[in-house]
From TrEMBL:
UniProt xrefs under CDD domains: ABC_PhnC_transporter (cd03256)
Keyword terms, alphabetized: ATP-binding, Cell membrane, Membrane, Nucleotide-binding, Translocase, Transport
SUPFAM superfamilies: P-loop containing nucleoside triphosphate hydrolases (SSF52540)
Name of the protein described by the UniProt record: Phosphonate ABC transporter ATP-binding protein
Domain ABC transporter span(s) in chain numbering: 4-252
Record-linked NCBIfam families: ABC_phnC
UniProt keyword Amino-acid biosynthesis present: no
Listed PROSITE patterns: ABC_TRANSPORTER_1 (PS00211), ABC_TRANSPORTER_2 (PS50893)
InterPro entries associated with the record: AAA+_ATPase, ABC_transporter-like_ATP-bd, ABC_transporter-like_CS, ABC_transpr_PhnC, MetN_ABC_transporter-like, P-loop_NTPase
Gene that produces this protein: phnC
Membrane association type: Peripheral membrane protein
Main localization of the protein described in the UniProt heading: membrane
Compartments where found: Cell inner membrane
Length: 256
């Protein structure tokens, strides 16, 4: 069973086609870079996987994650909620609750799985608190557990978001431009963290990157979008210079 299966995904905004018949399959345990220039449709594609955006109504589009339908024909599937609980999201803008501690931010990952009364009151068991510390250990931040989230650097906050996905017991992590606002050293640490949890825990990772160098360093496969179509899908080594020039034009040497 593939981790992701997208078939004939079509999405338009105001009648402008942003995704044109996109089909993708990602196997469990892969670490895939989704690349392409700004506006090529990467974020829109990612949002379909979490059921934050739906394909065109009555299009033949199907999106499945972890063997469960997320959406079909532009409508949410019955299993959407259950599937979403297994998908960890990491965004460019860290998305932590600044005034809460690092540990509490990680515990938020457990909210979808605990009884409603406890989630409403923010009550966590000792076992859950311990598990949050273990998740922080996995991303190298255990010693920062009691700090306010906003007191951490951008790269550290991004690793807290990854720990939150571990707390959630996510089987797949979707990271949309997780290093776009980070310096090179922080970017390296975030990418290494994603790579480590992919390799050691077998969590499937799909990461959008506009800097190809990071895709080449940390991912084994690349899927490139160009103007809403799959332009390349294959081993990262197949990303030849001519292909990248075509993909990015003169922007290729920017960044890092
Ligand atoms: P990328 O992440 O590759 O930069 P996006 O998926 O964000 O690209 O955007 C692809 C195209 O879709 C862009 O032209 C963008 O302006 C458009 N778009 C994205 N979201 C919306 C929206 N909610 N409403 C209208 N247009 C949108
Ligand atoms: Mg984007």
């Amino acid at each position: 069973m593939p981790a992701i299966k997208i078939t004939a995904l079509r999405k338009s905004f105001n009648r402008v086609a942003v995704l044109k018949d996109v089909s993708i399959e990602v196997q469990k345990g892969e670490m895939v870079a989704l690349i392409g220039s700004s506006g090529s449709g990467k974020s829109t594609l990612m949002r379909h996987l979490s059921g934050l955006t739906f394909a065109n109504r009555n299009s033949p589009s199907t999106v499945e994650v972890l063997g469960r339908k997320v959406q079909q024909n532009g409508r949410p599937a019955k299993e959407l909620r259950a599937t979403r609980a297994r998908i960890g999201n990491v965004f460019q803008q860290f998305n932590l609750v600044n005034r809460l501690s690092v540990q509490t931010n990680v515990l938020i990952g457990a909210l979808s799985r605990i009884p409603t009364y406890r989630s409403l009151l923010g009550w966590f068991t000792d076992e859950e608190k311990l598990k949050a510390l273990e998740a922080l250990e996995s991303v190298g931040l255990r010693q920062h557990a009691l700090k306010r989230a906003s007191d951490l650097s951008g790269g550290q906050q991004q690793r807290v978001a990854i720990a939150r996905a571990l707390m959630q017991e996510a089987e797949i992590i979707l990271a949309d431009e997780p290093i776009a606002s980070l310096d090179p050293e922080s970017s390296r640490q975030v990418m290494e963290t994603l790579q480590r949890i992919n390799r050691e825990m077998g969590i499937t990772v799909v990461v959008t990157l506009h800097q190809v160098e990071y895709a080449q360093k940390y991912c084994s496969r690349a899927i490139a979008l160009k103007e809403g179509e799959i332009y390349f899908d294959g081993s990262i080594d197949g990303l030849e210079t001519s292909l990248l020039t075509d993909l990015y034009g003169t922007r290729i040497s920017e960044g890092t």
